[in-house]
């Protein structure tokens, strides 16, 4: 089998591995976007370091590293991982795995253009037609998903308004009934009272009784509001990314913008990798890119945690009284061992095996072909989202 065929198979396998990993950690990760990027880069870098040494045992390890190649791969890491992956993971938080993978299908357009500019790869009309069809399908799926989510959001708002109106009508009816009961009671009392009773006192008694009815109903209503308010306070938005996701119009718009920006940055990062990583193997390239990003984020996390400890020490706050707040720069503390195990599996698939397959394909076939084959994630995402997350795809999504 030729190296080109191996490259095609690797490019096709990469999105399948990534899609499975996407769904695994989407259902289990309960931390911030930054902490997920921090965890996945450092965990994957350990594997890349081991394999970089093992695969170079016959030669001297890292003999292909030069200042120029390592420097530009670090720049590729900043563009494609530190910034690009943050946008990618934030898009995952806002949109969900299926929509983010669908947006990634826009990469072939940009890859074909940059491949022609930087590597002189020809722009054949057959390839352009295929790219146009792919991106048209992407926008069909995006448009269909947006319209469905918008209609669901409008239905939720309508139900909230109806419930609020029913609640108000119930309160008014209860108040009126209570006032009538108290008025009837007052009339009965007045029929047996002394004849020389003061009218002003009767009016005052009736007013007090009416106020008592209002207070009685109001207190019940306040109790309900207090219970609702207490539930809201005592139940913060915790859980996996999928559980806390809100498909509002603004969050969808923000998620799509971030995902598209990631497509641009990630594609240019691939250009830099192909330009300056030709003398390295796939493990060494991934070690430099993910290792550099992991070290930078680890330093940021250590600095922020140290700052918090200094503030707590200066304020003399006992350790048992310190608030356990989920900070964006720290790993989550509320995940079970089972959830951590699944996240490790997801990270291994997305951050370890997927870049290895993609980098291998990148040096065996053209840039545009690599990213085109790597963007067939929707073919895997639609059935997987149905099986793993019970999100049944619509007819338009399947056509797209």
Low-confidence stretches: 148-154, 186-203, 209-224, 226-236
Counting H and I runs of at least 4 residues, what is the number of helices? 13
- Strand-residue fraction? under 5%
SSE series: HHHHHHHHHHHHH
Concise account of the structure shown:
By secondary structure, the protein is mainly α.
Structure description:
This protein is mostly helical and 400 residues long. The chain contains 13 helices and no strands. The longest helix is centred in the middle third of the chain and has 67 residues. About 13% of the residues have low confidence.
Helices and strands in order:
Elements: H1 3-26, H2 33-54, H3 67-95, H4 97-103, H5 107-119, H6 125-191, H7 199-234, H8 249-276, H9 282-314, H10 337-362, H11 367-374, H12 377-389, H13 395-399
Name its key features.
mainly alpha; 400 residues; 0% strand
């Amino acid at each position: 089998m030729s190296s080109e065929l191996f490259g095609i198979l690797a490019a096709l396998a990469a999105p399948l591995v990534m899609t499975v990993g996407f769904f695994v950690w989407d259902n289990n990760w309960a931390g911030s976007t930054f902490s997920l990027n921090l965890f996945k880069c450092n965990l994957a870098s350990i594997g890349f370091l081991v394999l970089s040494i093992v695969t170079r045992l016959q030669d001297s390890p890292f003999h292909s590293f030069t200042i120029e190649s390592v420097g530009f791969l670090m720049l590729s890491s900043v563009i494609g991982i530190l910034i690009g992956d943050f946008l990618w993971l934030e898009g995952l938080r806002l949109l969900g795995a299926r929509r983010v993978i669908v947006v990634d299908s826009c990469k072939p357009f940009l890859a074909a253009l940059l491949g022609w500019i930087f590597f002189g790869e020809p722009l054949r009309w057959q390839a352009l037609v295929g790219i146009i069809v792919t991106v048209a399908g992407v926008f069909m799926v995006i448009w269909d998903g947006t319209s469905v989510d918008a209609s669901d959001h409008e239905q939720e708002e309508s139900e909230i308004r109806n419930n609020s109106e029913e609640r108000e009508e119930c309160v008014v009816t209860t108040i009126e009934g209570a006032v009538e009961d108290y008025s009837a009671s007052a009339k009965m009392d007045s029929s047996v009272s002394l004849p020389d009773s003061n009218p002003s006192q009767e009016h005052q008694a009736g007013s007090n009784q009416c106020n008592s009815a209002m207070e009685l109903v109001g207190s019940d209503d306040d109790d309900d509001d207090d219970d609702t308010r207490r539930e809201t306070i005592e139940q913060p938005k915790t859980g996996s990314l999928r559980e806390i996701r809100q498909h509002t119009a603004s969050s969808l718009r923000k998620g799509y913008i971030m995902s598209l920006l990631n497509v641009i940055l990630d594609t240019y990062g691939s250009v830099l990798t192909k330009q300056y990583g030709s003398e390295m193997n796939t493990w060494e390239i991934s070690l430099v890119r993910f290792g550099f990003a992991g070290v930078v984020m680890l330093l940021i996390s250590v600095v922020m945690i140290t700052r918090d400890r200094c503030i707590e020490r200066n304020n003399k706050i006992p350790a048992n009284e310190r608030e356990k707040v989920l900070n964006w720069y720290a790993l989550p503390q509320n995940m079970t061992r089972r959830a951590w195990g699944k996240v490790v599996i997801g990270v291994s698939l997305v951050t370890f095996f997927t870049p290895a397959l993609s980098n291998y394909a990148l040096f065996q076939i053209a840039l545009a072909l690599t990213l085109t084959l790597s963007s067939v994630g929707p073919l895997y995402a639609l059935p997987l989202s149905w099986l793993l997350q019970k999100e049944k795809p619509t007819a338009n999504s399947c056509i797209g």
